[in-house]
Amino acid sequence: MGTPSGHGHTHIRGFMRLGIGGHSLSSENLAKWKDRMEAWVRAPGAAPWNIFLPPDFPETRIVEWRGPGAEAGRGPLSELPEAARRASIRVWTPAIETLLTVAQWPGRGRGRLAQALPYLLEEQLLADPETLAFSHRDTEAGIFVAVTAKERLSAWRAVMEEERLGVTFCPVTLALPWRPRTWSCRFADGQWAIRTGPYSGFGAAGLLTQIPAAFRQALTEAVKAKAAPDSIVLFGGDEALRALIARESGLSVIADARPIGAGETPGFRLGETGGAVSASGLAALRALRPALVALAVVLALGFARTVADWVRLSHEEARVNAEMTSIFTANFPNAPVLDPARQMRQGVAKLAARAGGAGQGFLAILTDASPALAGLAPGALTRLEYRRGEVRCAVRLANFDALTALKHNLMRNGLSVQITHVMSHQGGVQALVTMTRRSP
User: How many whole angstroms separate alpha carbon 171 and alpha carbon 191?
Assistant: First the structure.
């Protein structure tokens, strides 16, 4: 699929068929997600394990694994250590299975980039775009794209799910440590992996007797583009391989004994459009795990308490409603029960109004009038009566000014006052004062 170049084109084996399907919600899947959640909670911030797939995986399930410490091994995937099964795992896939390239996006917006990638790279693809999984990473240097056959990705994923492993996939090309002005190289299981940049590189099948043609062509194109490396760093090879690469490339080759993938954050999560979460983002998420778990527990407990209170108050409401209905029926046996609380208030208000104790009743009006009436001289108040929300009192005062002052004092206390039947008599004036409570 394409010819390797300075941008890191690669070959993709085979001619791929659509193969990523859905999975039913079975007891096995539930158990798998339970195991993943337990691992997520128990090991916040734990360093990931690395699994390196051979080219013929999953037909052959012999893999190489490496833990965050000195743990390392090779064998069937079923023999993976228990510590790895409870940790996050990076699966490094064969380099030849993924095309790493650069897309040119003329548009300004990135919203439709994922949908446009198959058409932007159409000339570089040997297979039907419908059978390919596209992952991309948008950087200041360009839009780097990883293209993998859905069939192969589906086959790898199926095996990992069968083993109940929580994994992310990334081409082994990007597991090679890299620094500017160099290329990184590795030969294993009959395949070459060459990393040419932060998100670029390629893979090729070959022998130990000579470097592959794709390697030569990539060097030639890099020289033409004035982007040739100053040196090549070889990982995991012996002196004979180092000398072979130096002789055939014409560049200095530096042997590096460090294990690959140890500190590398995957540049792409294959099959997940948009690339990988950054290292700082992963660290932040891991650091927040205990807080997120605690928050989830608090929310769950709060919700449970709310439900319990709602059930308790519902029972209390039913009990109080039954009690009010019983009391209302006992006091108003001839009235239909519609809303006992409201009917009870209305009934009590009517009884109070009849007795002069309602808001417009005798006691309420007299309470407002008492400060003014208390200032009258002994014998000035000759009669007091209540009728239909009005308090009437007959008064005998010294003069008209005293009557006017009484009226003003009553009105100041919130009463409506009407003075009638005013008559002069020897030594004073008498009148009938009618008082009601002023409407709000």
Answer: 13
Token digits for 130? 């419908």
Is 365 found in the same domain as 252?
no
- Nearest Cα residue to 365 out of 433, 420, 414, 303: 414
Nearest CA to 174 out of 55, 94, 104, 252 is that of 94
255, 363: one domain? no
Strand partners, 417: 435
Taking the C-alpha atoms of residue 204 and residue 191, their distance in angstroms, rounded to an integer, is: 6
Which residue range(s) make up the domain with 385? 356-437
Residue 63 inside a domain? The answer is yes
Residues 268 and 375 in one domain: no
Q: Where are the alpha helices (DSSP H) in 376-417?
A: 400-412
CATH number of the domain where residue 363 is located: 3.30.1360
CB 81 within 8 A of CB 67: yes
**Number of neighbouring beta carbons within 10 Å of residue 346:** 13
Number of domains the chain contains: 2
How do residues 175-210 score in pLDDT, each as one tens digit?
A: 999 899 999 999 988 899 999 988 889 999 888 788
Model pTM greater than 0.90? no
